[in-house]
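Human:
Focus on the backbone:
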Amino acid sequence: MSASLAVVEKSENPDPSKQPAPEVVVLKFGSSILRSPAEAPLVASAVYGHVRAGRKVVAVVSAFGGATDRMLGEARALGLAHSNDLLPGYVALGEEKSAALTAIACDRIGLDACALSVRELGIVAEGEPEHSRPCGLRPDHLKQALDRHEVVVVPGFGAVRPDGKVALLGRGGSDLTAVFLAAELGLKKVRLVKDVDGLYDHDPNDNTAPALRYRRASWDVARKLGGALVQHDAIDLGESRGVEIEVAALDRADGTVIGEKSAPPGPAPALPPLKVAVAGCGVVGGGVLGKLLQDPRYDVVGVLVRNPAKVRDVACPQELFTADPADLWAKKPDIVLEALSEGEAGHAVIRAALEAGCDVASANKQAVSRDPGGLQDLARAHGRRVFWSASVGGGAPMVETVRAARAAGEVVGFEAVLNGTVNFMLERLGDGAAFGEALADARAAGFAEEDPSSDLEGLDAAAKVRLLAFEAFGVSPAVEDVPRDHLTQATSAEGGVRQIGAAHLKDGVITPSVSLNAEHGDPLFSNLRGEGNALKVYGADGRVWRCRGRGAGRWATTESIMADLAEIVRARRADAGLN
């Protein structure tokens, strides 16, 4: 199940000229980022943030670290000399492997991704077999892939010669691939993600003098100082095609823009690790904790749990666990990520964190749906931020979709499949499984809690309806005002039954509901599989916004809360003048 955002359509008399195409971005990830397959999820995370913001992504990847040299050595050990026509076809397999595994990592977190081979991508190049220059792009495959998918992962470095044989674009050629694709797509900018945060006046590892970073560097400065950082052929192509080249580190808004003009270099801002606390260490909290502990940008200072002695499935120093919130606040975290399973306790943690001067991101719909407006007011009063995208839809960007619709005009309603556990069970029941078997399967897949009553009684979906209603209308209905159908052993799942959470605004009155029915009449819902979630938002002018994605499971929901964390970090740096 893919994650996609804000597909906009007219319900009557659509006017294509008024429907802007989604923004496309080209991102390149080199071997310094993709050192091994273990780093593919880092790339997927970076891509997720762009998709959640409504963009389509072309991700250009290099081979995993050391793979190109190893493959060159293997081929030459068998007698293939330099410039042999057969060698590029073998070496390019390194990038194709990287593209395939990166697409798999994207799929795991719910992104709608595909991978193209060198031949499918269809960059045509001329020149020496190992150092050719792109001269054209066969348009069909990339365009079709972008039409069908949110993310297209492509191999850098490789191209196809007019005679059909594979060619290479020179060492560092993935930079050239990215710049060329950006130019062919009509973009004005391409982003090269490196292991350094920009172009410096000298090697930052040379401590004889402080290294100064360029905010903007001209083409000539980049050619003079870029060295191995950016391929010179890519710089030349960027200049000739008018494509600026951004060089930045992973998940850093700031970096160096290479283009027509330079600005004097200056000291790069020091960015010490942010102190992060996690509340909850279940399916989502454990996934978040595992990612944080592997990321040097964050210093995990504490983990709030009910039982610190419990054995968990994430490797974490035992001394970080505490059952006392006061211990957490004593560590003075900058950010709190709240993923408790209980609403009242989660709400109390969020309020205490904001009052303690922490920014907060929550995946706890029962907590934030209690009083979303009050939490926002409290955050503003303390100069902090509270995010809750992960609390609705798992990896599906539902909150962002509603906000996009509301920013475009008045919203008059929404309908959604909001509970991945129930959708998974309904599909299994429709296939003939017994109720107990379907529930056991949901637990085994990591979707259902040990106590599934919140899901089965519609309380989970109702909390999400209340929160989406707040985003859509500025008002959250009371819990008792949301009628709910229960999923029980007597429920029939024949005919494509789905649990539909909805709220409609008419004559100033909001009508919310959570119902089990097969009368939704939309393949967006009936075609959902497994833990899939989907949303339709209705504008007063007849437009309809849609999104879909994985609505349950560790990785999709973890990715959503990590994307909220990334937004908080960018906002904090902007406040400090560091972006």
The chain has a mean pLDDT of 90. The radius of gyration is 25 Å.
